[in-house]
Amino acid sequence: MKSRSKIKSRKIRSLLVTTAARRSADGGAVVRGQLVVAGVAHRCVLGRSGSGWTKREGDGHTPKGRFPLIEGFFRQEAGPRVHSLLHLWPARRHDGWCDDPRHPAYNRRVRRPFVGGHERLWRDDPLYDVAIVLDYNFTRRIRGRGSAIFFHIWRGPQTPTEGCVAISADDMRRLLPRLAKDVVMVIR
Helix, strand, coil: what percent of the chain each, to 5? Predict the structure, then answer.
């Protein structure tokens, strides 16, 4: 693998996520992986239940497959202006993401307060300082198949997500200028 300092600043075509060979400390699912970009490996974490081909709302799995990047959002208060070839919108305190399969806005951004189940996009922790929406169950929604599958900042290298792919804030800052709408994340 190439050194991180040798990553060229041109746009990339794909992000490859592979799982680590080791199980979690409690013997459970594989929750750590590698995100490979232009031959450079970055540590990443996956959902608390590992990765799988079958995804259900709330199961903690990171879905396997090929998922184009749709758009992203960021918290302006979290630091300097972020730059990307991908459309990024500023998250506001009232932004949420519907995770209620019974609601017509399932797997869509919503305005809070919101009557259905939802996740807050404005957080006190850095998870969503920058987050990219993956086209998992987004373009062609199937209720109950999973929502809010993002590429975002991790809590730490040992802490799994709820089904997303997460990396360090430093790695996200390095990758973000190279991400565009035609980039695909491949999760194996």
Answer: 10, 35, 60
- What's the length of the chain? 188
Model pTM score: 0.90
Torsional sign, CA 150, 163, 109, 139 = positive
The confidence score (pLDDT) of residue 6 equals 45
CA–CA gap between residue 159 and residue 31 (Å, rounded): 8
- pLDDT tens track for 25-36: 566 677 899 999
pLDDT of residue 184: 97
pLDDT tens for each residue of 88-125: 999 999 999 999 999 999 999 999 999 999 999 999 99
Q: List phi, psi (to 5°) of 170.
A: -65, -45
Rounded CA gap, 167 and 51, in Å? 16
Q: Which residues have CB under 8 Å from 27's CB, separation 6+?
A: none
Chain centroid to Cα 78, Å, comes to 18
Q: Give 120's strand partners.
A: 96
Burial zone of 8 (CB within 10 Å; 0-12 exposed, 13-18 middle, 19+ buried): exposed
φ, ψ of residue 63 to 5 degrees: the values are -70, 140
Write down the domain spans for the chain: 12-187
